[in-house]
From TrEMBL:
One of its GO terms (molecular function) is zinc ion binding. It holds the Pfam family Peptidase_M1. This is Aminopeptidase N. Residues 1-23 form the signal peptide. Its EC number is 3.4.11.2. It comes from Streptomyces kanamyceticus.
Length: 506
């Protein structure tokens, strides 16, 4: 704050105002939001409400030029603050005034406005930048997919630093307008609704809007040559799917899977309540990876996911995340079970509905697949550690925990819990223990021990009560046979293959 002389007329009025903290109280915002799994992720001192990204991308060179306008509110008296970002920045303005900036650490953009920012005030930050995302490596890792006709940002837990500055952690969700200019004949895909598109002097601009809180890692960009299908659901929700023109033999199976998005979403609504966002869809770019990601309103699918034919189960997984992961997000990355345990269990429920094996049969099969000395049982889905955040145990043991809950409380209560949770925490964040408490409240049963056994003990739990008879029976004969849906579900196990281990070096 600048001390200045106050004109007598203004004095009386100024005394009525809250007295701002003295200059000495202004301090830097933390360079991380406080997540022990990823200490550099996110930042402290402010909360973002909206990102406006105005971008231009040239597929031939991978050059991305952008202006990010960020609306935020300060949560402390700030002398400076950080954004997470990796590309080269040319100018930063805070509330219209030029600010000093410096790159520190691997992914920090440290911004010092000309004067301190008072706690609780709205601020607007403008960042101008340019760079080639494919050339940006952080700890030797690059999350950007360079394709023959463009580029794609879709990765977990971090993707944003490759293409826009942000408070890069699910705790600080915001709405988005993403406007992208690309050469005519090329498309730009992002989240939410395509508000408009227009062409001028050889460039086409696509204006996308995602109008509900969205985590930075769930914000996606795909530039390339796509075939696009559009539709509306019976309830009026716009559906937009995009397929690279370059999918080769996977083109048919990709469409045969993703064109079932509306059907799958309507089925999930019967389980989890009304779909939480303003648009539906999916996209398949010509990337070399094999995973899929629940990018909000419009999941990303690698073509390799459809190499063995169609796979509706993977669509079930990514759309289930729209409730479990996107609307209700992790509080910290240790809470990953709140996403993956439920997305995997949704695949089991789809199998049950399709008559390809009940959730109990899948649970029996998974349990029998892993003998007591299998390392599978040493991973704790409730707090797996950053190295095991996307371990198969988080998915399969995570789903076993839900089957154990179902057996304990019965179907009526179990499905009431599954439907109630996404409403209770809609558009927010939640911890594993919040779910435990919620399940106890709805069921009226003490469940801490059950969840401790299935989510936190580094050893194989005893077979869940409801299936002991079955296990005793099958032990006499042989291990349970694989349910029909097993291959299709197992084919999604690479669903979140990602660079986490290399990237974070734990
Ligand atoms: Zn998942």
């Amino acid at each position: 704050m600048h001390r200045r002389l106050i004109a007598p007329g203004a004095l009386a009025a100024s005394l009525l105002l809250a007295i701002p903290a003295s200059a000495a109280d202004f301090s830097p915002g933390a360079p991380g939001i406080g997540d022990p799994y990823y200490p550099a992720s996110g930042n402290g001192g402010y909360d973002v409400s909206h990102y406006d990204l105005r971008l231009k991308y040239q597929p031939k060179t991978d050059l991305l030029e952008g202006t990010a306008t960020i609306n935020a509110r300060t949560t402390q008296d700030l002398s400076r603050f950080n954004l997470d970002f990796g590309l080269k920045v040319s100018e930063v303005r805070v509330n219209g005034k030029k600010a000093k900036f410096a790159k520190t650490g691997d992914q920090e953009l440290e911004i010092t406005p000309p004067s301190g920012l008072v706690k609780g005030t709205a601020i607007t930050v403008v960042v101008r930048y340019a760079g080639k995302p494919s050339e940006l490596k952080i700890n030797g890792y690059n999350a950007w997919h360079r394709t023959p006709d463009g580029g794609v940002a879709a990765q977990e837990p971090e993707a944003a630093v490759w293409w826009f500055p942000s408070n890069d952690h699910p705790l600080d969700k915001a709405t988005y307008d993403v406007s992208v200019s690309v050469p005519d004949g090329t498309q730009a895909i992002s989240n939410g609704v395509l508000q408009s598109q227009s062409s001028k002097l050889g460039w086409t601009r696509y204006n996308w809007r995602s109008n509900k809180p969205q985590a930075s890692y769930l914000t996606t960009l795909a530039v390339g040559k796509f075939d696009i299908t559009t539709d509306k659901t019976e309830s009026g929700l716009p559906v937009l799917n995009a397929y690279s023109k370059d999918l080769g033999d996977n083109a048919g199976s990709a469409r045969a899977s993703i064109e079932r998005t509306t059907e799958v979403a309507e089925w999930l609504e019967t389980l989890y309540g009304k779909y939480p966002f303003n648009a539906l869809g999916g996209y398949v770019p010509n990337v070399k990876s094999s995973y899929a990601l629940e990018t909000q309103t419009r999941p990303f699918y690698s073509p390799a996911a459809f190499a063995n034919g169609s796979n509706a189960s993977i669509v079930v997984h990514e759309l289930a995340h729209q409730w479990y992961g996107d609307s209700v997000s992790v509080d910290g990355w240790k809470d990953i079970w709140v996403n993956e345990g439920f997305a995997r269990y949704s695949q089991w429920l789809w199998s049950e509905k399709e008559g390809e094996g009940s959730a109990q049969e899948l649970a029996d099969y998974v349990y029998a697949q892993h003998p007591a000395d299998d390392a599978f049982w040493t991973v704790k889905p409730g707090d797996p550690g950053p190295d095991n955040q996307f371990d198969i145990a988080v998915y399969d043991r995570g789903a076993l925990a839900l089957q154990a809950l179902r057996n304990e409380v019965g179907d009526d209560t179990f499905f009431a819990i599954l439907k109630g949770w996404p409403q209770k925490h809609a558009y927010g964040n939640a911890k594993v223990n919040d779910f435990v408490k919620y399940a106890e409240k709805v069921s009226g049963k003490p469940l801490a021990e059950l969840f401790d056994t299935w989510l936190y003990q580094p050893s194989r739990p005893d077979a869940p009560a409801a299936k002991q008879a079955r296990v005793a029976r099958s032990a006499a004969a042989s291990a349970p046979a694989a349910p029909k849906s097993w291959k299709e579900i197992a084919a999604t196990n690479g669903v979140h293959e990602h660079g986490g281990k290399d990237r974070h070096g734990h």
